[in-house]
Amino acid sequence: MSSCKIKDASFIISATSIENSPAPSVAEVVFVGRSNVGKSSILNTLTNRKSLAKSSSTPGKTRLINFFDLKVEMNENEYHLRFVDLPGFGYAKVSKSLKDEWEEALSEFLYKRDSIRLFIQLVDARHEDLKNDIEVEEFLNSIKRADQTILKVFTKTDKIKQNDYAKLKNKYKDAMFVSNLSKRGVDELRDAICKVLFL
C-alpha cells in the first residue's frame, strides 16, 4: 500500500526558460529523459490522471518546460510540490542552432533553479547504455548540489524479457523500474519521491 497519495494535480504553465518560469516557491521534481521515453505517461500514471501531461505523437516535438502543481498526503500530513516536465532530448529533427538554443536554456534552468530537489532521469529499459543518456547522467552529477538527489528510473520494463529485467535490476541496484502498462513500480516511485522531499 502506497504511503504517499496524490490528492490533487493541475497544470500550471509552460515556459521557454528559467526567466519566464513560475516563482520557485515549492520543492520541484524534474523529469529528464530522451524523447519517446514515456515522460508524459509516467507523469499521468504517478498522478492518477489520464491527460495531465500531453504526449506528442511526434517524438521531440515538445519544446517547453511544463509545470504541474501537486498536493500530496503522506503520514496524515499534507504537502505541496511541483513536477517539472522538460523537453525530451536526442530525437527532435530541428536545426543544430535551434537544438543548441534549447540545450542552453535547459542547462541554465537545471543549473540555476534553486527549488529543484530531485532529478528523475528516465531511461528506456530496452536501451540502457545510449550515449545521450550517459551524457545527461554525467551532466546532472556535475551540477548536483548537496540538497539534491538524482534517481534513475527505467521505463517500459514490460517490453523486455523477464531474464533481461532481472539482469537490469541486478546491475542497477540503486535504480527504480516502472511500467505504465502494468503499473509495475509506480507506487514505489511515488513513495520514493515523497520520502526524498518530505522525510
Mind telling me which CATH architecture this is? 3-Layer(aba) Sandwich
How helical, in percent, are the residues? 25-40%
> In one word, what is the shape?
globular
Q: What is the straight-line distance between the termini?
A: 18 Å
Work out the count of structural domains.
1
In sequence order, what are the helices and strands, one letter per element?
A: EEHEEHEHEHEH
Number of strands: 7
CATH superfamily: P-loop containing nucleotide triphosphate hydrolases
- At the fold tier of CATH, the topology name is Rossmann fold
The level-1 CATH class: Alpha Beta
Radius of gyration: 16 Å
- Give a short account of the largest sheet: 7 strands, mixed
Structural class of the secondary structure composition?
A: alpha/beta
Major sheet: order of its strands? 1-3-4-2-5-6-7
Overall description:
The protein is of the alpha/beta class and 199 residues long. The chain has one domain (4-198): P-loop containing nucleotide triphosphate hydrolases (Rossmann fold). The protein is 31% helix and 28% strand. It has a seven-stranded mixed sheet with strand order 1-3-4-2-5-6-7, sandwiched between helices. The longest helix has 17 residues, at 96-112.
